[in-house]
Amino acid sequence: MADAVQAKGLVKDFGDVRAVDGIDLRIPRGSFYGIAGPNGAGKSTTLRMLTGLLRPDAGSAEVGGVQVWPNPRLAKSVLGFVPDNPVLFDRLTAPEMLQYAGMLHRMPPEAIVARSTELLRVLDLEDSRNRLIADFSLGMVKRIGLGVALLHNPRVLVLDEPFGALDPVNAQVIEDLLQRFRSGGGTVVFASHVMDVVQRLCDRVVVIASGRVLAEGPVSEVSGGGNLQDAFVQLVGGRDLEEGELAWLSSWSD
Amino acid sequence: MALVLVRLRLSIAARLRGNSPGAQLYYATSWVLGGVGGLVAGTGTAVFASAKDLGDALLLGTFITLSLPWIMGPLLEPTLADGTVDPRRLEQFPLTTWQQVGGLLLGALIAPTATFTMLFASGPVVAVGESPEARVAAFAVSLVYTVMCVATSRSAQAVLAESLRSRRGRDIAALGAAVLVLVIYALAMHVRGTIESLSEQLTGPVGQIAGWLPPGAGARAIIAARDGDWSDYGARMAVMLAMLAVAILVWAWSLARRVRGDISSQGAGYRRSVSDPLPLVPKALGWLPANEATAASAQQLRYFFFRSPKAIQTLLIPPVMGMMVAHSTFGNLGVPAQAAAFAALAVVVGSFNVFGYDGAGFRYLTLSATSMSRVLWGKVLAPLLYLLPLLAAYVVVEALLAGELGQAPLAFCAGAAVIAVGIGIGAQSSILNPNDQSTIGHRQGMFLKVLGWFMGFFFVASVGAGIWVALAQAVGQGLTAVILLPTAIVLAAISVAAAGRRLERDPSAVLARLAPQAF
Fold first, then answer.
1. Most CB within 10 Å of its CB: which of A128, A213, B226, B282?
2. Shortest CA distance from B311: residue in chain A
3. Is the pTM of this model over 0.80?
């Protein structure tokens, strides 16, 4: 199977700090791929380099057959990206934002109308079509962010913590939507801290810590056939409270 | 407990801009400026207090004038960026309302701005020829005046705080600020003129009323103490103390109100009932090609017309001020000069920071596969859709008033040329000096840079005006307009194109300024 996303030796330094230290990735087309790692592991930095938002100091990235650097604009045209906290023009309404996104992608007006109407319905935003995005809850912003990312029908969808702030009903709708996108040949790449979601949805997973790949492969392989959460803690190193630490927490006298 | 809050406030203020040597220098400089500026201002009030009649009027005028920034501050920049302790952060601690108010007030008093105010108001203490009692009384006035200004400002901020946390509240505050700026500007234009007329106004009925308003009462109390009229002094002090008490009570009430949940900021917000499946582009622009530039223009116009409070301020304040200045100051130079002056003031704000009305939104643009230069074209051209009709209307009105309707086409060309130059320079400013106006706070230091760009534009416009005059003498006004308007448009196009290429090459440089949290 051809790769939808490839990264070779990605490196990024911020001053003296090496955020990403030679990451290699091969994400098969049509897969549901999870990127896991502790806080500050380099997940978001990796995603930003893969999506053409951040130029790597070394290495290369390819998305949908397009070398991201030096063609970030071309790469962005074949992918959709939903950041952890989607940033949109929040003084527009959801239909206006979708039209804006469609026009920026030079889509024909008929396609913008048809797709945005359907997306608003599927994403349960039809009743809020007259409200500004600034007045949306975070869950609604995530949903319209996903709509904007999907509007131009990208080949690869990259999501950073897609299920955070979503209620169970909407999380289920988004899961179904992503599965449909995948079954149509699309590739879903998402970063998450929530291991049970990664285990439930993903075919493959990469665990990153300190900017390096600790483990990569099918979820069942990385989890060792058990719980991915336990495998993750084992890989990145857990922390236990020492005996006697914070003993004062239960020492009130009255 | 108050001292704990004072220490917290000082720590926040000192680290507001970071721990770098430059930030520390900025912090120290702000104190030096507050101190030195206060001493200079205090010298002025000392002189005013010594000189009767005109001095009294000036003392009254300056006390009122200095109170305006304290009153307008919370409206114009409803921010905690000056290092104020956010009351919301204190809620989790076991503090009474009065402990919070006391600590926050004391903390707010230890600031360069409060120091400036105190030194300004203390000037009459060292005025020549004052009795010892008058000096003590003047010191008491300066103390009460300073605490009153700070308490009123912080109280207003606390009252607004809850509503300002909602988008709707911020919109209303921004619109209120725009109206306030225009009213104050109109008043300033009204009372401007000779010092003698100002003196007449401040010693007449206007001055009588102003002398009983809390800030004016401070000045009048100092004058009463100097003249030995202690009953009048007591009455004026009572006015200030009453204002101070009201401010503190309102402050305490607003803090308690939040705990009770009596907040009214949960409004329905903006709603626009539309059934149009393509609602972004206004019908009037439907003839434009469906591309990135049109999309960006439409988005910008949506923001200008009742979406973004800062954009609405841009739409309201500069053109109105432009009309006032052009009409009053350039009236004797002819309609073309008036049109050019109006255009210069009207174009300057709306075109010099075109990405600033939604800094975070720029991040979306960098995510999309769009041509950033086309987006820039769309955004810089959007203001033309209201500027050109405004210019035409202004030119016709001024030409009719002057009885020189024949000058109207020339005047329109002069104004349009200035607008073109403004758009060209504005595009460069938008790329090289962008700042996010949609979020509050953390824009200290931007003022001088923005002012620098404005001054640069005014200088270029002045040079253009000089060329216009020189050329008109040689070839006549009509031919001058025919030569200079296309020249200005071409130069503007070159400038916008260059800015677009720069943006296309490195959008992250602009993103870093507009949404540093993205990095």
1. B226
2. A91
3. no
CB atoms within 10 A of CB B68: 13
Please give the order of strands across the beta sheet that includes A79-82: A79-82, A156-160, A187-191, A32-36, A204-209, A212-218
Distance (Å) from the C-alpha of residue B179 to the closest C-alpha of chain A? 22
Cβ–Cβ gap B294/A91 under 8 Å? no
Subunit contact B295:A99, Cβ cutoff 8 A: yes
Q: Which residues of B197-232 are buried (b: 16+ CB within 10 A; e: fewer)?
A: ebbebbbeeebeebbebbbbbbbbbbbbbbeeeeeb
pLDDT at B84 over 60: no
3-state helix, strand, coil split of chain B in percent (to 5) is 80, 0, 20
pLDDT in tens, B466-516: 999 999 999 998 999 999 999 999 999 999 999 999 999 888 889 888 877
Distances (CA, A) of B518 to A135, A252, B360, B510: 22, 44, 9, 11
Task: Indicate the helix (H) or strand (E) that contains B364.
Answer: helix B359-367
Q: How far apart are the C-alpha atoms of B456 and A250, rounded to whole Å?
A: 66
Residue B420 has pLDDT above 90, yes or no: yes
User: Which DSSP letter does residue B51 get?
Assistant: S
List the Cα angle B127/B129/B130 in 5-degree steps: 70
- pLDDT tens by residue, A3-12: 899 999 999 9
Question: How far apart are the C-alpha atoms of A4 and A78, rounded to whole Å?
Answer: 10
Residue A180 is inside which H or E element, if any?
Answer: helix A168-183
Instruction: Name the helix (H) or strand (E) containing A33.
Output: strand A32-36
Question: What distance in Å separates the CA atoms of residue A208 and residue A198, rounded to the nearest whole number?
Answer: 14
Total Cβ atoms within 10 A of residue B448: 7
B278–A112 C-beta distance less than 8 A: yes
Q: Which of B456, B292, B454, B318 is nearest to B383 (CA)?
A: B318
Structural contact between residues B161 and B153, judged by C-beta atoms closer than 8 angstroms: no
Q: Do A116 and B295 touch (CB under 8 A)?
A: no
Hey, what domains does chain A have and what are their CATH numbers?
Answer: 3-78+154-236 (3.40.50.300), 85-150 (no CATH)
Distance from CA of A223 to the nearest CA of B (A): 32
Cβ contact A132–B367 (<8 Å):
no
- Name residues whose C-beta falls within 8 Å of residue B146's C-beta, 6 or more positions apart in sequence: B109, B114, B117, B118, B121
Task: Provide ipTM, 2 decimals.
Answer: 0.79
| Structure confidence by residue, pLDDT tens digits, A29-86 | 999 999 998 888 888 899 989 998 888 999 999 998 899 988 888 999 999 999 888 8
C-alpha Rg value of chain B to the nearest Å: 26
| Residue A95 preceded by cis peptide, ω within 30 | no
Please list every residue in chain B whose beta carbon sits closer than 8 Å to the beta carbon of residue A135. Answer: 167, 269-270
For chain B, what percent of residues have pLDDT higher than 90?
42
> Are residues A109 and B278, on separate chains, in Cβ contact within 8 Å?
yes
Query: Residue B391 above 60 pLDDT?
Result: yes
A127, closest residue in chain B (CA to CA):
B273
Distance from B316 to chain A by nearest Cα, in Å? 19
CB pairs under 8 A between A and B: 108
What is the predicted pLDDT for the residue at B170? 65
